Amino acid sequence: MEKKKDFLRAIVEEDLASGKYEEVVTRFPPEPNGFPHIGHAKAITINFGIARDFGGRCHLRMDDTNPVTEEEKYAKAIEDAVRWLGYEWDGPVRHTSDYFERLYHYAVELIQMGKAYVDSLSEEEIREYRGTVTEPGRRSRYAERSVEENLDLFERMRKGEFKDGEHVLRAKIDMSSPNMQLRDPLLYRIRHARHMRTGDEWCIYPMYDFAHCLSDYIEGITHSFCTLEFENNRAIYDWILDTLRLGPPRPYQYEFARLNMNYTVMSKRKLKELVDSGKVSGWDDPRMPTIAGYRRRGYTPESIVNFCNAIGISKANSVVDVAQLEHAIRDDLNPKAPRVMCVLDPLKVVIENYEGSEELEASYYPHDVPKEGFRKLPFSREIYIEREDFSEHPPKGYYRLTPDQPVRLRHAYIIRCKEVIKDEEGRITEIRAEYYPDSKSGADTSGIKVRSAIQWVDAATGYRAEVRLYDRLFRVENPQGPEDLNPDSLRIVQGALVERAVIEEKPDERFQFERQGYFYPDPVDSSDEHPVFNRIVSLKDSWAKKSKKEEKSTKETAAKATQPKPEGAKKEERKESSGGEGRVAPLDEAQRRIFDRYRKKLGLKEEQANPLARDETLRTLFEAGLEHGAAPVTLANLILNEVARELKNFSLGELRYGPEALAELATMIDDERISVKIAKQVFEEMSKSGESPASIVEAKGWEQISDPKAIRPVIEEVLEKNPENVVKYREGNQKLFGFFVGQVLKATGGKANPRLVNELLIQALG
RNA sequence: UGGGGUAUCGCCAAGUGGUAAGGCAACUGGUUUUGGUCCAGUCAUUCGGGGGUUCGAGUCCCUCUACCCCAUCCA
User: Fold this and answer.
1) Which nucleotides of B are covered by protein (CB under 7 A)?
2) Is the pLDDT of residue A2 over 80?
3) E strand segments, A137-244
4) Complex ipTM value
5) Residue A20 known to be catalytic
C-alpha cells in the first residue's frame, strides 16, 4: 500500500492517527432494487478496500427501507457480486430492516424532544409548502401539535390505523433553509406493503435520511462513504445524530464521484429499459455494464478491481474511457491465459506436398509468459486459415500470405501459395499451397524469412464453435436512448473452428485465441457438443488501425483536400469563448466617495480600494488598523488576502486578533523585520493563539536574515548538493531558479530575505 | 434563480507557496514464430477566464464563466 493516497484514505489515515477512532469501520449499503453494475464495483472497492488497507472492517448492509421496490433476488445478486470481487463482509449480511424497532424508538425520542411531528398534509400540499429553490417554504399547520398528540398519532400510524399517505412523520428543522433537504424532511411514511424480509410486521417505513445515519451509528460505522448526490443530505445526517446526542464513535459522511463510463449507460432505469425492451438478453447480457454481464462475458474479478483502483477517487464528475477497462482485462489476462488457435472465418488450404499427419508440440504460453504447459497440435494436409490472412492483391505493408509472400503457420511450417481457387462468382474457396519440410517450428533450417506467423486449425481434428464478438453497446460516447444503440454490438460467428485442445484439454477457463483476443466459454450456452465462446476483449491491433487510417486518408485526398484546421485552433476557441468579463455591480454614491478617498489620500490601488469600499466588515477593520499607525497599502493587502480568507468561515467577532495586531504585523513587514512569507506564518499563528505578532516572532526566532554573509554559505551548500540542476540551469532551464530559491529558503527556515537570496543566487549561478 | 459541489493533457488523476507525478489513449523506434506482450523514447513554458498578493502562484485573495446535485411520501 505504498501508493499515493486518495482523499478518502487521507481522511481515514488522519482520523486514525489523531485517535478519533481506534478502528475504521465502513459499509457498503446498496438498496436491493436492481442488479449491481460497475459503479457498484467502485463503491465496493472503496469501502472494502479502505477497510482492508487500514486493518478495519466493512459491513454489507441492504438498505431495504422501501418495500415496494426491493426483492431478495437483488440482494442475492449483490452478495454474489461482492464475493466474486473477492471481498468478505464482517459479520452477517445486515439490513436496515434489522433496526426498524430501534429506529422507531429514535423517532419517538425525537418527538419527545419536540423535534419531530406528525404532519397530515396531503402529498401535493407538502410539495407546495416546501417552496422552491429560490423561495422559502412555510410550515404545516400540523407542526404545532403537542408532543402527546404526536406520540399518539405516531403510535397509531404504526398500528395501521391509517391509510397510505394520511400522515407522515417529519423532522422539525427549518422550512426556509436554503438547503432544500432541511425543509422539515420526512422521516416516516405509511406503506401498507409486504416487505421482503419483515413481511407485514410494519406498515410505516423510515426514509433514507432517517434510517441511514442511524443504521451507520448502530453498526459503529466510522466513515460513511457515499456518492456526490448526497452532499446536500449530509446536513440531515448530522442533524439527526447531533439532535439525538449520540455519543462517540459517531460516523461522518464523505462523498465521492460516482463512476461514469463512455459508450454505455449506468443508471438503473436505463439499464432496466434495455432489459425490458429486449435490446439485450438480460441483466447478464455480456454487453451490459453489470457485474453479472462482465462476469458472463469473461472479465476477471481482478481486472475489475484493478480498474477501480486505477481510475482513482475524486469529487470531479468525470467520464472514464472504456479503453481503461479494456486495458485492465488485457493486462490481467496477458500473463495468465493460455494461447490457442481459432479461425473465425475459415479458408481452406491444401498443402499439396504434405502427406499423412503428425502431432506438433506447441507451448500454451509465449516466451515472455513464465508459465509452462503445452499441447499436441495435429497437423495434416488440409488446414484452415483466417480468410483475412490471405490477400491476392495485398495493400502496402501487408505481412500475411499472398501469392508472392510466404507465411509461417504458427507452431508449424512455412507455406507458400501456389494457386488460388475461386467459385464462379470470383470468391476464393481454397488455396493450394506447398510447405517447406525443413522449416518446422523450432528446427527451422530453411533460411526463409517470413514477415508473420498466422493461426490455423487442422481440418480433420478441429472443432466447430460459435463465437460471439462483442463490441460497445452504444455507438456514441454519451448515449441518450435506444436510438444510440450500436447495431453491431453483437456479431455471432457460427462456423468458427477451434483446435482440439480447447475442447478436449481445457487448460484453463479463459483463452487467448492468438492474434484475435481473449475468449471465455459462455457459462449459460456453451457445452462440449455446442461450444460457444464470448470474446472478452480483442487484442490491440495496430495493423487494423494503420490500414484503417490509410484507407481514410486516401479517401480524403481523393475527395479533394479539405481545409486543414489551423494548429491550436481548438485552444484559442476555448479561450475566446470563456474569456468574457462578467458585469460587476457599480459602486454606489457613498462607496464611490470612500473609493476616491482611499485612492487619493492613502495611495491605494484600484484593486485594493474597490473591495474595501464595497465590503463594510473589511473596511471597519482597515480603518481601525490605520489608527494604529499601519501603512495603508501593506495593511490593505493583509486584510484583503489573509483576513478575507478567515472571514469566509468566521465572523469578525470570532477572530482572535484585532486591528492593532494587524497593524503591528504590517509595520513589521514594512520595517523588514520579517519577510512577507514569514508574515503569513505569523498570521496563521496569531489567528490560532491570539498572541501578538511581536511575541510570536520572538518566540519562534523568525526575524529576517538580511546579512549576505549569513546567506552565501547556504547558497553554496545548496548548489553543491544539486550539481545536476546547476548544469541544467546554466544550460538554460530558467525554471530551476525557483527551485534554488526554495532550497535556500528551506535551509534557513524561511527566514532569509528572499529578495537578497535572489540577488546572491544570480551572482552565484553566474 | 437560493443553496451545495466541481474545473490540472484527448480520458482518468497526483499535487496543501519553491523543477507540473503516474495510468489510459496516441505517436516513434527496438525485440518478437501473436501486427499481442515487453523495452526505449515522444506527448501540459502551463492548471476554466481575468485581475490581485508574493522574490516566486495550479496552490492564497477578488471576480467572472461553465458543468453537476437539491423543490419523490425514492435511495
Assistant:
1) 1-8, 10-27, 32-38, 45-46, 48-56, 60-75
2) no
3) 168-171, 186-190, 204-206, 223-227
4) 0.97
5) no
